[in-house]
């Protein structure tokens, strides 16, 4: 794995973790549309991290 690939994986993991925190806050604020978008971002980052 190249350094660039490792960096991309680290970024995907970071986005995954941060989007989960953001999702919790958006749900607390009852911002459903934004929470749905954030959940999609989280899922996409998780998918990238797995591949």
UniProtKB/TrEMBL annotation:
InterPro entries to which the protein is assigned, alphabetical: Regulatory_Rop, Rop-like_sf
Entry protein name: Rop family plasmid primer RNA-binding protein
Originating organism: Rhizobium lusitanum
